[in-house]
Each structure stands twice: as C-alpha cells, then as structure tokens.
C-alpha cells in the first residue's frame, strides 16, 4: 500500500518511488487481475467505479463517454479530452497496485546521458527520475514528453478540499495515471494535488522536472553550487565554471608549449605512451617501436639497453634526447628521493630500482645521449599496473630538474 | 548513465598521441603554434573519449573544419563574457513595466544564461534545454579530467 503524505510525496511500501504518468498508453498485457486487486483497495463506490472503469478499459482501450460521467463527479470536471486518460489511468493504477515489481518498468526512462552514475543515482533520489537508472540502464531513446496523447491527464483540479480522505482518493486517482508500461519512452509525471492536469501542463511539468533534475546534477558537479538556490544563480555558477575550465585548458596548453622546447616532447610522448600501453611489463618489441616511430620525424631511438633487470624488464627504453644531458648518478639520487616521497605503491619496486641503478650506473654513464629515462623506466614501468600516469610523470619531473 | 567517468589514463594517452602526431618538437613552430597544436590535441582527446556525446561530435566537426583550413581560428568561446547581469537588469526594467512578476523576470534571466551556456558548450546551439544541460554535465566532467591531465603533465615537465 502506499500512503499519500502531506507534502505531496508519496511512498509506497515497496521501495522505489512510483510516479504516475500523465500520459500513457494502455498496455494490453495488463491482466485483468489488476482490476481485481484494485477492488481490494477500493472501499468506496467511487473506487469501484474506478474498477469498473478499469474493467471496461481493459476490454476496450478507448474510454467511452459513460466513463466520463463517472469520472466527472469524482474529479473536477474539466475537459472532455481528459476523460479517456482517467480510465487508462485507472487501469494503470490497478496495474500499479497489483504488480509492485513492475513498478520499475513504469519508471521514467531517462535519456542516458548524465554520465556520472553516481550523480544520476543522486538525481534519482531527488525527483521524478527514479531508479530508472538502476532498473533499466539500457540506453533508451531520448525521452520526450509525448505529444498530448489522446488519453492524457486526468482531471484533478481540486482547489480546496483538504479532506484527508478526499486527498487520499485524489491521490489515488492521481496514481491511476501510472502506466503499467515498460519500455515505452514516456515521461512519467506525477500530477500532484492542486495542479493542472491537462496534457499541455503535464508535458510542461514533465519537462520542468527533467530540467530540475539535471540542474541538481549540475549543482553537484560544480563546486560551490550546492548552497545556491535558484536556477539563475546556479546557471551563473555553471557558466563561470565552464569558462574557468576552458580558460584553464588554454593556459595549460600555453604552459606546455612554453615548456616544450626544453624537453624532447616527442620522446616523452613515446615514453609515456609506451608505458601506458605496456601493462606492467615493458618489453618493447621493435615492431611496436617501429610503429610509434613512424609518426615522428625526430625519431627517438628505441634501443634495448642491456639492463639486466632480473625480474621485470628485459629492456629499457632509451630515447634519444639531444637536449637532455643527464648525470646518471644525480638522477638516480633524485629518483630515490622521488620514489620515496611518492605513494606507497612505489615501495614494491624499490628493490628493482636498486638493482637497476646498480646495474646501469656504470653502463649508462658512458653515453650522453642516453636519457635517464632508461633506468628510470624500469621502476616506472613496474608501476604501470598501479598508476602508469603519475610515476612516469614524477620521474620526468626529476628529469626536468636535471636540465 | 552508461558513460563512465573518463579515465585520465586514456585521456593522457590520447592526448600524448595527438601531440606526437602534431610533431610539436619541431623547432620551426612558434610558441603560439605549439600552443594551438597542444590545445587541438587536448580537445581531440577530450572529444574522443566521449564519442557518443553531441558536444563531442560538434567539437570534432568544429576542429576538423579548423584543422583543414590550416588555421586555428580564435575560438568564439573565449570571447564570451557573462553579460547577463547587465542585460538582465535592463530587461528587468522593461519587464517591470509589463509584468511585475518575479517569475517572469527570473525566466528572462535564465534565458540569458542559457544562451551563454549554449555558446560555451560546443554544439550547444542545436540543442534543446534538456539536452543542453546533459551535454553541459558531460562536458564539464571531461573538461575537469582534461585539466587535471594537463596539470599533471605540466607538473611533470617542470
């Protein structure tokens, strides 16, 4: 059973929020048992009328005008066009009552675009777009409020009667809008108490709720926005943030361009890409190296230095970096410091580093052209599994310091 | 919902691949050219991570158009300044005459902001409100990731 709480939110005993649909299509597969279940819930004759309606509706998809007469005294008599919707809503409500597990399928199918599932989940808790994210995570077509369907909103305009029962009843009728549908990309909007229920306003409301949900997601994404209330200010913050990020990209690209002549960026690229490409173990096959080299004019020389690393590396990557004159010992010391300072995942490779440095120190010193990326690559590449990005960058940081 | 939070590794890798392709270390390039090339690579990397996004496609189309022309036009985004406040106050005055309702004024302001956002997000001109917010979400995520990647790189190289 569900209860209609005073604030307009309703919760049902079975977990997720159910939102009635303002527009829906009668699903022929709704069994008549739903109508029977509906009967259990209907204590009043009016509800029986609902049941009757559902029965009739089950038999005939289109609501005939006699139904309309029944509906009229119950609900605020508004437009005749809304009446078909009531019957269908009745059917859907029975479906809703009868099959709580099916509720998930009735949920709003949202376009799957909000990319962050965490944010989407949070949004789901917020508003109309409930566990559709959890329930049906299949990418669904863009949800659009359907054109005012023939069986649209029920008339629910009630202004004043605050009778609890009336409220409940009306709430129930509101619930009747719920569709027993799965898989139809319809926007399910709850028609709350005191709100217009004609098709246009319902569609608008659906749209508004969609937009509000997304605004909430954006609020969470943009730092400092959660305290702000009001769409305009939030939008302001969002715009500021987007501009800020774009300007950051510009600025950082300028900085990278300024940094560039001092380091063999191509070598760095190949090195980093190689590290990211090799999962953990770096054995640079010549073929692979060749493909990478193709794209560059300044071809970094991938030579296999015979770093006899006992464990992981058969070869190291040495790129020809004319600008880099490295003093191996100092760099190794840097790396010692660097690696010690970095996170704990570097620890397993300390021994590697020691062996590598021990082995390569005399060997590398002879060659100016060898970058210290070589020996450094070994421990770095060991981190590949853990964090291929940060350690190589740290080492290159140290490299840079040497220049 | 199906889109994952962009992995920075992937971004970095794509970024660097693009940078390599552009042959940045060629001595002939000036600072500005290099910067443009870097930015181009960054944008491409961003867009390629999220191929199914509308803004991504719009961005790639935009970039390819620029790239083929061999010139990198100054992005219009840079020149967008939030003038919403000024305009909206003016509008507010006008609005006050016709409708003193706060909602109308708020709607006006929101519309202005929305226009600005459309200009910011690539491909935003052709979207409706809902999609615009969706795309902004996604674009923001990727922008953040891209900025982080670039910061890492800068930190590594300096």
Automatic annotation (TrEMBL), chain A:
Pfam families named among the record's database cross-references: HLH (PF00010)
Start and end residues of each BHLH domain: 195-245
GO cellular component: nucleus
Protein name: Basic helix-loop-helix (BHLH) DNA-binding superfamily protein
GO MF annotation terms: DNA binding; DNA-binding transcription factor activity; protein dimerization activity
Family the entry assigns: Belongs to the bHLH protein family.
Biased composition (Pro residues): 142-151
Compositional bias (Basic residues): 37-50
Organism: Rhynchospora pubera
UniProt main location, coarse: nucleus
Subcellular localization, as worded in the UniProt entry: Nucleus
PANTHER family, per database record: STEROL REGULATORY ELEMENT-BINDING PROTEIN, TRANSCRIPTION FACTOR BHLH48-RELATED
Disordered: annotated span: 30-51, 134-186
Keyword annotations: DNA-binding, Nucleus, Transcription, Transcription regulation
Keyword Oxidoreductase: no
Automatic annotation (TrEMBL), chain B:
Organism superkingdom: Eukaryota
Sample GO molecular function, one term: protein dimerization activity
All residue ranges annotated as the IBH1-like N-terminal domain in the record: 12-66
Family statement: Belongs to the bHLH protein family.
Residue intervals passing through the bilayer: none
BP-aspect Gene Ontology terms: regulation of DNA-templated transcription
Family annotation (InterPro entries): HLH_DNA-bd_sf, IBH1-like, IBH1_N
Name the UniProt record assigns to this protein: Sequence-specific DNA binding transcription factor
This protein's UniProt keywords: Transcription, Transcription regulation
Record Pfam families: IBH1_N
């Amino acid at each position: 059973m569900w209860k209609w709480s005073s604030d307009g939110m309703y919760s049902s005993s079975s977990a997720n929020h159910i939102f009635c649909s303002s527009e829906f299509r009668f699903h022929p597969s709704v069994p008549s048992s739903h109508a029977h279940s509906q009967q259990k819930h209907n204590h009043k004759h009016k509800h029986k009328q609902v049941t009757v309606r559902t029965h009739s509706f089950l038999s005939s998809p289109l609501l005939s005008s006699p139904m309309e007469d029944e509906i009229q005294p119950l609900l605020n008599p508004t437009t005749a066009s809304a009446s078909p919707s009531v019957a269908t809503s009745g059917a859907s409500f029975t479906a809703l009552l009868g099959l709580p597990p099916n509720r998930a399928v009735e949920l709003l199918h949202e376009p799957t675009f909000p990319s962050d599932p965490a944010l989407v989940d949070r949004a789901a808790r917020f508003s109309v777009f409930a566990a559709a994210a959890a329930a049906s995570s299949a990418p669904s077509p863009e949800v659009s409020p359907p054109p005012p369907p023939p069986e649209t909103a029920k008339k629910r305009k009630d202004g004043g009667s605050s009778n609890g029962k009336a409220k409940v009843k009306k709430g129930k009728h509101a619930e009747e809008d719920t569709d027993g549908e799965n898989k139809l990309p319809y926007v399910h909007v709850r028609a709350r108490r005191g709100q217009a229920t004609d098709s246009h306003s319902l569609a608008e409301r659906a749209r508004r709720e969609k937009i509000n949900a997304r605004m909430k997601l954006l609020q969470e994404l943009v730092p400092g926005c959660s305290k702000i209330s009001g769409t305009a200010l939030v939008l302001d913050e969002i715009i500021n943030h987007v501009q800020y990020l774009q300007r950051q990209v510009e600025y950082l690209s300028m900085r990278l361009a300024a940094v560039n002549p001092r380091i063999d960026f191509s070598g760095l690229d190949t090195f980093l890409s190689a590290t990211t490409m090799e999962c953990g173990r770096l054995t640079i096959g010549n073929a692979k190296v060749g493909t990478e080299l193709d794209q560059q004019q300044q071809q970094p020389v991938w030579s296999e230095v015979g770093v006899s690393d006992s464990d992981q590396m058969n070869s190291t990557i040495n790129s020809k970096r004319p600008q880099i004159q490295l003093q191996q010992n100092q760099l190794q010391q840097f790396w010692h410091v660097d690696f010690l300072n970095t996170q704990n995942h570097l620890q397993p490779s300390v021994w590697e580093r020691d062996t590598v440095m021990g082995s390569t120190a005399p060997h590398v010193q002879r060659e100016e052209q060898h970058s210290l990326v070589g020996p450094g690559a070994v421990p770095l590449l060991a981190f590949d599994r853990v964090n291929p990005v940060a350690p190589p960058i740290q080492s290159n940081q140290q490299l840079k310091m040497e220049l | 919902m199906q889109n994952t939070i962009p992995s920075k590794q992937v971004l970095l890798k794509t970024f660097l691949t693009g940078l390599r392709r552009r042959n940045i270390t060629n001595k002939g390039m000036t600072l500005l050219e290099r910067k443009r090339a870097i930015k181009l690579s960054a944008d491409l990397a961003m867009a390629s991570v999220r191929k199914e996004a509308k803004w991504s496609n719009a961005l790639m189309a935009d970039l390819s158009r620029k790239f083929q022309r061999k010139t990198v036009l100054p992005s219009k985004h840079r020149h967008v300044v939030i003038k919403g406040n000024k305009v909206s106050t003016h509008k507010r005055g006008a609005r006050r005459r016709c409708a003193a309702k706060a909602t109308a004024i708020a709607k006006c302001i929101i519309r202005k902001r929305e226009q600005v956002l459309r200009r910011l997000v690539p491909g935003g001109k052709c979207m409706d409100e809902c999609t615009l917010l969706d795309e902004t979400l996604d674009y923001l995520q990727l922008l953040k990731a891209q900025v982080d990647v670039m910061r890492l790189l800068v930190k590594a190289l300096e």
